[in-house]
Amino acid sequence: MKIQERTVSKFEIYFSVLSMIFFSGAILPMIQAITTSQANDSNLTMDANEGNVYIQYVFIGVYFITLILIFSKNRRLKEVFKGDLSIKFLFLMIIMSIAWSQFPMITTRRIVGIFGTTLFGYYLSSRFSLESNLKIFARACFIMAILSLATAVVYPKFGIMTGEHQGRLRGVFLHKNTLGGIMCLYSICAFSLAMLTKQNKYLLHIVLATVLIILAQSAGSLVVVVSLMVFGYLLRIIRIPLQGLFSILAILLAIFIMSYFYIYNNYDVVLQVLGRDATLTGRTLLWAELAKWVDKSPLLGYGFGGFWTGDIGISSIVIKKIGWAAPHAHNGFLNLTLELGYVGLALFLICYLSNFYSYLLNCMVNQQLIYSWGILFFSLLLIYNMDECTILRANQIYWVLFIYTISFYRKLKDQPQTNFTLVAS
Q: Which residues face 422 on adjacent strands?
């Protein structure tokens, strides 16, 4: 099948689906765990892509193929990376952080990973329309969901967790939380497709994702999915004038503040409902310790990828203090501050908030439902990074979709008629 103008080949579709599965943290870590006789180890790290040479080779292959596909379309890299200034400055800071990182070689290697992951996100935006990209991601999620159920039946030694999380589904992922996070993405992807195409068949995908979340016994993910579905429905029916948007934002901010104080004053009750302990499985102790290290290097941090280095460097001190091997800060914003300081955090927030506002403005004021995906995704990204870490993380599907979403908005604004479609035959 030849690649035609405004179309993509089957190879690109299959490559994108497979790559999204890998970026989601599925299959490859499972194969690694099974081949190393760790299938029933409940303490497997959720950052399995980091440090495994064979998995790194797979992602290097993904980066290389992505570059070939970009150049084969006669696109220059500067055109692909054209976008928000804040992202450009953020990546400039990432490169410069080699100078103040305690482990410059580790930082350099991780820079390659984040650039490759970012490149794949920009590739998706240069080749696929929003509807086509969501369909590709939905295919990838459907495959992961079915394989997760099959793994639980055929090979429960891996598919079902043991130990502290006895009996909870993890499928083809290393942890039930990873499964829950991907199924949340699957849900908003299917919901967006249902709104864009007006086809109710995508609601079945939401049902499938919800079933897996229930089997994983992830109460937090279930609450997030239900909340985002309600929010998405409101986006569909509510239209407000521009001057009213600021009032809505003020109301949402007030609700957020009231919710914060309610949760703060009823901490134990809320956590009991969500099935979590008072320390959020040790996270509050971790955050308290990490806050001390932020204060020691507040502006520039410790270099990209230079803080979390396992049993060497500063991370080894933190691990000894808290008594468990944390792979990251379990908070995306705190993790970013540790690596790039408040300067890096500010650059990211400028990009995040400006794009969030742009999507919100076009959806609720200009009545364009195509922008609803961005609102739901940015909302999920914010919620998910409260106790997980997917901001500026190499080989993570959340970062791929973040780059795609901010780049796709630019494409909609600059070239509103551009629309690549999938070749059916």
A: 8
Q: Which two tokens stand for residue 134?
A: 């969501």
Instruction: Report residue 160 as tokens.
Output: 């079902």
Give the tens place of pLDDT for each residue, 338-390. 999 999 999 999 999 999 988 888 877 666 778 889 999 999 999 999 888 99
**Shortest CA distance to 339 belongs to which of 103, 178, 156, 140?**
103
For residue 324, the model assigns a pLDDT of 85
- The Cα 393–Cα 397 span in angstroms is 9
216: Cβ contacts below 8 Å, ≥ 6 apart: 168, 169, 170, 176, 179, 180, 183
Q: Nearest Cα to 123, choosing from 400, 399, 391, 410?
A: 400
Distance CA 352, CA 189 (A): 19
Looking up tokens 């943290």 gives 25
CA atoms of 37 and 174, how far apart (whole Å): 14
Q: Which residue has the tokens 């995306």?
A: 332
pLDDT for 164 equals 77
Lowest-confidence pick of 23-32, 173-182, 407-416: 407-416
Q: From CA 28, how far away is CA 360, in angstroms rounded?
A: 36
Closest by CA position to 20, among listed 70, 66, 74, 54: 66
Buried b (16+ CB within 10 A) or exposed e, 66-91: bbebbeeeeeeeeebbebbebbebbb
Tokens of 101: 């990182």
Check if the beta carbon of residue 338 is closer than 8 Å to that of residue 293.
yes
Among all chains, which residue has been given the structure tokens 């040790």? Answer: 282
Domain ranges of the chain: 7-239+372-422
Distance CA 409, CA 204 (A): 28
Phi, psi dihedrals of residue 200, rounded to the nearest 5°: -70, -10
